[in-house]
Amino acid sequence: MATVEYKKPCDLCGQPVEIEGFTLITDKGQQLFCCGGCVSIYRLLHSNIAMTNTKPSTHNKKEDS
Ligand SMILES: [Zn+2]
Question: N or C: which end of the chain has fewer CB within 10 A?
């Protein structure tokens, strides 16, 4: 069951976002990222603005270890 949504480029590196879940809600709106690394870097670069980490409700837990 693949719901095809249009792919937005990563807000940090510009690569197509293949995996959901690397999302931050900032005062500028929702930012999408391709990977956890990009999220971390974005947070560092924009640590002055408020942001909220969001997670998809239930998805495959690839990042869990
Ligand atoms: Zn990226």
Answer: N
